[in-house]
């Protein structure tokens, strides 16, 4: 394990927050999972020292510290005492408990990385004089640390903090090659839900497509081999043309006959799948109208096709 630097407990202070330069910022992590691995490796790669890690299990903390020459494994209290900036990277449900249990201090900042959890759950740290904030990268980090690390640059990071800490966190985001985003008050949970539509719900939609392949005996692998090139093309079209203008498919062409055939086939497989299809098509009609690709008559034709009751299909 790399343990060349020890946590400096003598630097507990009640002084006002005067963050050191990023190269001298002592960063710690409580929670050594997927996000902590990606973020700590990325910080090290851009010259920001990660000096301490604690986790529920020593094995996880050790695995993270082993990849970081300046980092040592310790308990949460020692990470707090020895670090200028502590990332709470436990599961969301544990953040408030950790915030209550750890002895925080003035002259440090405590930040969680959850998209939906209010920053206010860190209030115990604020009451002890620390600055508190949120630092949420809009990215999905899996178990493969290399892939997670590679997926960080270019991400948007939602930052919520008082001005002194906000400036530091924006500087960190820039140093990581990310785009810092300060959200308006009250937008945090909606921002996080938007990520679900661009990630989790894409899996759910592809899951529906795969179920259709499985309905004639094909495997998930066969389905993915056929669908992934389409999905990649869709992402490229989104990037190139935007949401409305680039939308393909029968709805955008006003092809009500094909919509009727789809509904019939889907109803036979699973009425809930047909119901989801109907809802998505209605969103598609609005997008096609917005893009000027569907006139009022075309839209009315598709909507009539969507209104046919299931027992008439
Ligand atoms: N993964 C992502 O894609 C992603 C993206 C953006 C934001 N986030 C946010 O990042 C945070 C961490 O998520 P994650 O995906 O990295 O989770 P994770 O992979 O499940 O890792 C969580 C880590 O926290 C440790 N832990 C659990 N309870 C603890 C406690 N009471 N005290 C200290 N450590 C504890 C775990 O324990 P062990 O020691 O047993 O391993 C594990 O190492 C969450 O707030 C999440 O919303 C995640």
From TrEMBL:
Domain DUF2520: 155-282
InterPro entries to which the protein is assigned, alphabetical: 6-PGluconate_DH-like_C_sf (IPR008927), DUF2520 (IPR018931), NAD(P)-bd_dom_sf (IPR036291), OxRdtase/DH_put_Rossmann_dom (IPR019665), TM1727-like_C_sf (IPR037108)
Top-rank taxon: Bacteria
Matching SUPFAM superfamilies: 6-phosphogluconate dehydrogenase C-terminal domain-like, NAD(P)-binding Rossmann-fold domains
Gene3D superfamilies cross-referenced by the UniProt entry: NAD(P)-binding Rossmann-like Domain, ProC-like, C-terminal domain
Every Putative oxidoreductase/dehydrogenase Rossmann-like domain range: 24-137
Pfam families: DUF2520, Rossmann-like
Record-given protein name: DUF2520 domain-containing protein
Organism: Castellaniella ginsengisoli
């Amino acid at each position: 394990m790399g343990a060349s630097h020890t946590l400096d407990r003598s630097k507990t202070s009640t002084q006002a927050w005067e963050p050191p330069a990023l190269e001298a910022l002592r960063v710690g992590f409580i929670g050594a999972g997927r996000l902590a691995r990606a973020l700590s490796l990325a910080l090290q790669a851009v010259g920001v020292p990660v000096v301490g890690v604690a986790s529920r299990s020593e094995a996880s903390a050790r695995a993270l510290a082993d990849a970081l020459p300046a980092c040592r494994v310790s308990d949460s209290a020692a990470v707090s005492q020895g670090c200028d900036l502590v990332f709470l990277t436990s599961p969301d449900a544990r953040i408030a408990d950790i915030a209550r249990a750890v002895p925080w201090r003035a002259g440090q900042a405590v930040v969680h990385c959850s998209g939906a959890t209010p920053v206010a759950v860190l209030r115990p740290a604020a009451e002890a004089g620390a600055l508190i904030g949120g630092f949420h990268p809009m990215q999905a980090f899996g178990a493969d640390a290399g892939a997670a690390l590679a997926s960080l640059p270019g991400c948007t990071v939602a930052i919520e903090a008082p001005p002194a800490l906000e400036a530091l966190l924006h500087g960190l985001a820039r140093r990581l090659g990310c785009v810092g985003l300060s959200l308006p008050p009250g937008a945090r949970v909606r921002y996080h839900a938007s990520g679900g539509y661009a990630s989790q719900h894409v899996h759910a939609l592809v899951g529906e497509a795969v179920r259709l392949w499985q309905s004639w005996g094909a495997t998930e692998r066969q389905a993915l081999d056929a669908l992934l090139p389409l999905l990649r093309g869709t992402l490229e079209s989104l990037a190139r043309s935007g949401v409305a203008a680039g939308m393909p498919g029968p709805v955008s062409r006003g092809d009500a006959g094909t919509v009727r055939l789809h509904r019939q086939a889907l109803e036979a497989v699973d009425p809930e799948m047909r119901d989801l299809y109907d809802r998505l098509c209605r969103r598609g009609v609005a997008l096609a109208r917005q893009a000027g690709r569907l006139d009022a008559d075309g839209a009315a034709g598709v909507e009539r096709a969507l209104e046919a009751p299931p027992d008439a299909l």
